[in-house]
Amino acid sequence: MYKKYKILMLTTSMEYGGAETHISELAKYLKANQTREVKIVSNSNPDDLFVKEITESGLGIEHFFAPFHSRNILNIRKSKKILSGLIKSYRPDIIHAHSRIPAFIASGLCRKYKIPLVTTIHGTYKMSPLLKLATNWGDYSLYVSEDIKYYWQKYYKFKPGYMTKTVNGINIDLFKPEETTPSGGQAACHPSAEGNFPATSGFCSPFPSVEGCRPQTAGWSSSASIKQEFNIKPEEKIIFTIGRLENRGGFNLAFTALKLCGIAEEIYNQDKNTRIIITGGGDLFGEIKAKADYINEKLGFDYIILTGRRGDAYKFFRECSVFVGISRSSLEALACGKPVILAGETGYLGIFNPENADKCEETNFTCRGYTHPENLDNILIDDILYCLSEENHEVIKNNSDFGVNLIRNKYSVKKMAEDVYNIYQKAVLKYKNYDFVLSGYYGYGNIGDDVLLFSVISNILNKKPDLKICLLTKNPGKLQKSFDEAFCNIEVKQRFNFLGVKRALKKSRALVFGGGTLLQDSTSGRSFGYYAWLLQTAQKLGKKTILYSNGIGPVSREKNRRKAAEIAKNITLATIRDEDSYNYLIKLGINQDKIYLTADEALNNYFSPREKDFREDIIVGRGDPDAPQNQTPAGDYIVISIRKWKHIGSDFFRLFSEAINLICGEHNLIPVYIVMESKNDRLLSERLSKLNSGAYFINNDKNNNKENIEKILTVIKSAKAVISMRLHTLIFAAEFGVPMLGISYDPKVKSFLNSIFKNKDCNYCVELKDFNKNQLAGKFRLLTSNREEIKEQINYAAEDLRRKAESNAELFLTAIEEG
Q: What is the value of pTM for the model shown?
């Protein structure tokens, strides 16, 4: 069941313009398709164009007046009082502001009443230190073009994870190539080209696969055609532009209208079968009318027609022969299958076509950043005449067909509403308690555990995005920044702030151990004590405790075994990644109905390897400092992943390096060492790489873990084989079907290899305590002699494990929602 949010939309005006059309279409679509309550507050009066359109739509959308248009202190106080009263009486779930002043006024009230504030920024604004200080863009924001995003981040430092790109949604049932006019009453719905939300969408769509119904708009003229209304001959071709005829925000919005007046006589001289129509109103209307009157008097008839403001723009788009302009109007013209010339004060991109479509989309069809050619008048005349010439009919038709499909696929009202609804789903979580506290070995620079963390969260949120998570980590600041760029509504807290952790548990429904082997004392008794304390605290507080894709053990000390058994009996759910851990948990006495054998969550990896060849920039230097630096390997290579461990003896370095030299010499391979965790891997890997002739060493970036993960995945994917002590290095190899050998320092390594090779006496694993260079070299010979068969076996087993791993999130969501 989708949440029927109560939305209060705020904007400066609902009088006339592209932003107002955006708001009107969005409000009507939201209300028509999910029976939400939507109310709009602006400075407009009941007779203004879009106020009449929404209030007379029959959808029950109300409009309220507030002087949002002015920074005058008296108007701000009045607006604040009006908005406060509406909040108290209406109690909205979300406030959605579409301009700067309403967002500023709403921000304090949203904090006071604990209502999330969503904003949409439709353009760039004048900037000053005082205005910057007084501006508040809310909790989550939408933007309509990349240049606006750049402006936002430059001046307001907005976090990427809290920004979402949307579109100026076009009602594709109203703006379409067919020459049809809506009849009286509510227009019929037509099937949309888009269909339902794709299965991979992060948030669930509440919208059916139809474009929003658009009721009859106030101010529409009769069903007579535009040519009949303005005495235009059937054979005459209409050159059309529409928009505000005024200066606003430092921009001359009447630029295109003035430019058409300037070149009108020359167009007429070259093609007398043309007329120009300019629709819109504003402070510059008088100036434009004077220029039009001069041309019309000179030509002896109304060559340039000024219509003023109209509520039936769709008619003009359908009957025009070419549209000149930018922004939302150009999208409406494309939706109607018309040739479009992108020209405005902000720049000139010329005739829209498949070749310049990317530039048009990049600027949201505003031409910002593309300037004007020196001879703009002549180029514009040539482009208009090119579009009107019958000789170019096929080219123009192809451009128009491309435009229609582009709008239907990417710029419909439905697409815009989906974007907004996704943000609403995130925003309502701001003042919500945590759904669960997530704990693991996070924040220690361990690449395997970082991959696990992001994979656990993304796989859960892909299935149920409206969850709020408190993450416990050693390094809150760094991880919070990473999550703000990838997800929203994840709060990161210091794992050793015990009072803070307890407060977080009280505000949540569950404690979740997300991956890894946490209940064990082989690394240290302190680690076991910490995780045991967490589980016991959560259970005493009456919270659910869930082991998510975990390994268990070994627990060697008797005291710890008793504690683990006591905790295990009160576990709500345990999804276990390997058979040995599954059996171990049963021995601890947990109810078997609560345990499920699944697989490691990292098999459904959040991250992807790079597409480019790793040799270009990933291998940055050799392990031997005396060797030439920044040389890349020219041949096949193996990946080696070693970690520090208490049972590694002093002779291990010699034996291991001899084994690697033997393997690489025999198989003509280059050794490449990777570091999965700097604290435990770096010094050992550096030392070993120096002992191997011609070895390479991956130099990780200390400040960019995402870069390190992608780098390592890329290196593993292209390797001939992997030799690893690290479990997640082996898992990554399995993900790409790369043959692997394991060095088992912990039962989890052998257990994973058993799940891949289906053999309890695994031929592709060497016990660390019994390490022998000849044994490792012999197993590598066996691995490479059956390479294709081994790759097929790994791929088959990995796919089976991936399917099992998918059940982690499903089982978890069932458990956390029960009760």
A: 0.73
